[in-house]
Amino acid sequence: MTDWEKYQQIRREAAFTGLALLVLILFWCWAGFGLSDVEAEVFGLPLWAVTSSIGVWFFAIVLVKILLRYVFRDMSLDDEKKEGVSHE
Questions:
Q1: Rounded to an integer, what distance in angstroms lies between the CA atom of residue 21 and that of residue 34?
Q2: Coil, strand, or helix at residue 43?
Q3: H or E segment at 46?
Q4: Domain ranges of the chain
């Protein structure tokens, strides 16, 4: 992988991570404020309290799994031009 390809992959990963953060913030707003009028309870807590805390946490885990599966790539960040040089 060339340095340019590595750079493009790093930019792609950063862009999708920022997009995932934006989606997570929007979900948090909907789960907390959007469900505040719902009278349902879960374990004695209002639905909005559960969805805006535990629900967001689980949603973040799902987003990270999606990023890891479809966006992120395992690559060496070492300089390939310095092959054969020992790093002692």
A1: 18
A2: coil
A3: strand 45-46
A4: 3-73
